[in-house]
Amino acid sequence: MKSFLVLSVVSLSLFTAGCGDAKGAAAARPKVAFVSNCVAEFWAIAQRGAEAAAKEQGVEVLVKMPPTGTAAEQQSILEDLLAKGVRGIAVSPKDPANMGGLLDQIAARTLLVTHDSDAPASKRLAYIGMRNYDAGRLCGQMIREALPKGGPIVLLVATLDQDNARGRRQGIIDELLGRSVDAARFDAQDAALSGNGFEIRATYTDQFDPQKGKAVIEDALGRWQDLAGVVGLFEYEPPLVLEAVKAAKRLDRVKVFGFDENDQTLQGIVDGEVAGTLVQNPYEYGYQSVTLLARLLQTPDEAQRRALLPAGGFMDIPARRIDKSNVRAFWDDLKQKTGRK
Amino acid sequence: MALAARGIDKAFAGVHALRGVDFEVRAGEVVALVGENGAGKSTLLQILSGSLAADAGQVRVDGEAVTFRGPADAMARGIARVAQEPQQCLQLSIAAAVFLGAELRRGWLLDDAAMVAASRTLLARLGLDVDPQQPVGSLATGQRQLLEIARALRAEAKVLILDEPTSSLTDVEAERLFAIVDDLRAAGTAIVYVSHRLGEVQRLADRVVGLRDGRNSGELARDQISHQSIVGLMVGREFAHATRQPRAPGEVLLSVRGLVTSAWPQARVDLQVRAGEVVGVAGLLGAGRSEILRALFGVDAPLAGTIEVAGQPLHGRGPAAAAAAGLALVPEDRQHQGLVLGHSVADNLSLPTLHRRGWRVAPQRERELAAHWCRELDVRAASPALRVGSLSGGNQQKVVLGKWLAAAPRVLLLDEPTRGVDVGARGEIYARLDALAAAGLAVLFVSSELEEVFALADRVLVVHQGRITGALPRDRFSEQTIMLLATGQSLDSDEVPA
Amino acid sequence: MKKILGIAVLLLVVVIATAVLSHDAVSGTNPFLSAYNLQNLCKRIGEFGILSIAAAFVIVTGGIDLSIGSVVCVAGCILPWLLRDLGVPALLAVPTVLLLTAAIGLWHGLLVVRLRLQPFVVTLCGLLLYRGLMRAFTGDQTMGLGTTGEGVRWLATGTLPLGDGFGLPVPLLVFVVVAALTSFLWRRTVIGRHLFALGSNREAARFAGVATDRLELLAYVACSLLAGLAGCLFVLDVNSAQASNFGNFYELYAIAGAVLGGVALRGGEGLVLGVVLGACLMQVLPNTINLVAGSNQLEFAVVGAVILAGAAVDEIVRRWLARRRPGKA
């Protein structure tokens, strides 16, 4: 037992040594937190937005990402932040249907906004993000243009228990099947769905494991020779889909669609291998979330505060469609924002 | 009739271990069950105590036909068996082990105080002076057997089955056990007693039942019991120790100076063994005899001292260095230290010497070597590819001896070389050690059986509290002298240096 | 040998069932038996098979390595960093990663052998430690080769064409080589014999002069080294490693493959062929579900149920046979 303690202390000190940057000076500034739903490049961009806003507004921002992407882990992160006494929290809730109690508890004790994925039933002050259902329909439009004759489609998503995943998927399905706009609709994962020339053969989940994501798409390609399109709904997924389709030598018959702005996705668009992607604006999620929290903190008057909140509690950061026509300009802007080569 | 069995048949994998065996024991009677290893004694005992079910035949307890559902069921009917090599939970406290399965409780809670107190009484009755709160693992092998007897006493068994109870006890402890057996007999307990030590059988048994090759080989009433008649039941031939020619020792092969073991940091050990000499080490349990052998072979690092083999100081630590220098150790605990029970006879025979034949294993060559040593030592196994754990104790011990003889040692160390070994195999091992000494090996062995020490040794070293308290040449061997030295009393004057 | 018969039959049953179930009567094609699918399957078997052999190395000594998934993560993050960010040539980068992971194994081994810490504790802490360090090291960025490294990716995505559209995936070949070498080491060398003696009865092995400490050290080094090798193949295959989840739970798949293949958790027992079969089963089952079912929701449940049913049937058949034929050993 003693040796175990020693080991823990050693690893803990290693760990804290690794994250102990930029403390000290920030001690006096109010703290707000920005919490993602997993670890991904997408959130690294959001982090930069959040940090830029924090600098402008003179607050300190703690960016937290649940490493294994589970709701339980996110919950303990949020509880720790509350315990730490942060003044405001912006979170992309993992499992809004079951986190209502915790979110309301947070809202009662500090300022709470949601981003990326909403929890409409909670007492959050505002939601900053896009309507995933709308983004899904935009994606559906893109697919219809690329495949005017329709065909069998397969969807790949990390998990279906997140609001954004469900919204995107439902938007795509409703648009392809020519259904009315209804963001509240939900088709079961294994429901048989066809119409309007399209057929949704399957929705696969990979639980954030890229090896598994690639494997299920490989299996789908092996199972169905007539697949017309595959959509990767999460940031890391379109490159996996592209890899699998490329290895199967089916790029000429299977169109690849995606969400978000992974470098390989963008490169695929440049090379004509990916038909297009729907991008959110994670930089803006981070930037707007922290800006809103900071402004609320700086505004003592209740009425003035309320005026800061967006109408209907929703700040729309609309999705954009990136295809061959605008990929260059978008990528250059992204590189400039993220400060990468 | 406390316990009776009629027409018991039992086969393992098609081989009959028992055929139509009858056996009975009455209240207040001690029945000795004798037979060579492999004669079926263990199988019969396992059937009588509920560990095995017979293929055919009937077991009756107090005249009532029973089918045991397991050892616990047999225990509930008053039948307790003390196994030769008991399986014990080494981390449990002694008191917890004594009461395992029948814990004393106060309401829902364990009544540890009562169990400790009761255990202390039971252990004292057996002359075992240990703290019941210590873990079982802190006991020596012989003491663990007494613990099993304590369990049976605790259960107030009507029938007590003792399987080689003295194999790891010293003579003093064995005497105490005999007194306990006498007590229990007087109190009306039926006792089944299994032992290879014929003196004990003569001392205790009211009746002797023999088994040979899985069948009844006869019965002896109290007035018929003698050394010869018992051996006759077992082997069907008379067995006698040959009186040996005195040996002529040569140069010093093993020389130890100032050896200090971690078990007895205050004691220094000096000893020498010559080529062609057999030296016995006697002493009470826990006197530090095994510790000396373990330190010599590098299993436990000695705290100080020099060890020379054939004049060369032993360099390096650990058994590998010791083996390379020409030492070999046949350890005390065959099942845990001597053999890899799950591996084949061949693999066990080759283990210490495999690396001497290059980095690759050539299966053909290993098979031939194994076959050679099996022949050489008369290991009775259908094939060297058999699991060594399936062999009888005597054959297992021959494998342990063989694996070290294959290493061609100069000095052979043995710790209880015939524990749990039947009369026949025992004789073969004695003859082998004799031949090895004649061929110029130095042999140093620890034994708790004085009979064995007298039969084999040219010289006896007696150990008490980690120290060698005396060295006796063959012409001064006497039970009384050794017991005096072993209990720490000094002799009058003329101690012979080790 | 008897121990792996059960898994071999189970694998055969699953393969036949999948081939029958996935057969498309309309088009007359069989996706499961298609060259494309078999090729993918072989690739995954190769990658995960190496992990199972890694796990088996430590399990036969009676130990356990729970850090395999995190060591995969280390390889998966460091290799792209070397190749893309530092521009180290592949011929140098891969050996560097293997050396690093072997060093991790050495560290585990030293803690187990010298400090006498329990392997469970050492490697469980390793599981947390390396993943955490990698997250800090990568700053939670996804590591990948991007579009560079086409050449070295052949190791994971390349095939040796055998005609008829089927090619042997390179990872399978790597696995076959690793399996053959391991089998030779276990069955035909002194090291192997000593390794098994140590796993079966450490005390007896020590009394026989076996260098138990050094061998145990070797087992941990081999385990982490092979996990690093598999990690390289994984990242070269999927080209995307996120420190927080790359290789997550792979230690469990690795241990499951080894144990299914008859490697006893108490140590001292196991055949490489069994591990190969176990690894195959662990990859065929998810493939079956993807090819037959509408979604992969039930994947874990089916894998768990089939393996459990297989183990139970195996045991029942064994007992039934033992009772029916008492004459045969």
Describe the structure in your own words.
The complex is a heterotrimer of chains A (341), B (498) and C (329). Chain A contains twelve helices and 13 strands. Chain A is an alpha/beta fold and 341 residues long. Chain A has two domains: 23-129 and 282-309, Rossmann fold (3-Layer(aba) Sandwich), CATH 3.40.50; 132-279, Response regulator (Rossmann fold, 3-Layer(aba) Sandwich). Chain A has a seven-stranded mixed sheet with strand order 7-8-6-9-10-11-13, sandwiched between helices. The termini of chain A are far apart. Chain B has 498 residues and is α/β, with parallel strands linked by helices. Chain B folds into two domains: 3-235, Rossmann fold, CATH 3.40.50; 252-486, P-loop containing nucleotide triphosphate hydrolases (Rossmann fold, 3-Layer(aba) Sandwich). In chain B, 33% of the residues lie in helices and 24% in strands. Chain B contains 17 helices and 22 strands. A six-stranded mixed sheet of chain B has the order 6-9-10-3-11-12, with helices on both faces. In chain B, strands 18-19-20-15-21-22 form a six-stranded mixed sheet, sandwiched between helices. Chain B has a four-stranded antiparallel sheet with strand order 2-1-4-5, covered by helices on one side. The longest helix of chain B has 16 residues, at 171-186. Chain B is globular, with a radius of gyration of 23 Å. The relative contact order of chain B is 0.11. Chain C has 329 residues and is mainly alpha-helical. Chain C has one domain (35-320): Orthogonal Bundle (ABC transporter involved in vitamin B12 uptake, BtuC), CATH 1.10.3470. Helix content of chain C is 72%, strand content 3%. Chain C has helices at 2-21, 35-59, 68-85, 90-113, 119-138, 150-157, 170-188, 190-200, 202-207, 212-238, 250-260, 272-292, 299-324; strands spanning 142-143, 159-161, 167-169, 241-242. In chain C, the strands form two sheets. A two-stranded antiparallel ribbon of chain C has the order 1-4. In chain C, helix 3 runs antiparallel to helix 4, helix 3 (68-85) runs parallel beside helix 5 (119-138) and helix 3 packs across helix 11 (250-260). The model of chain C has no long low-confidence stretch (mean pLDDT 90). Chains in contact: A-C, B-C.
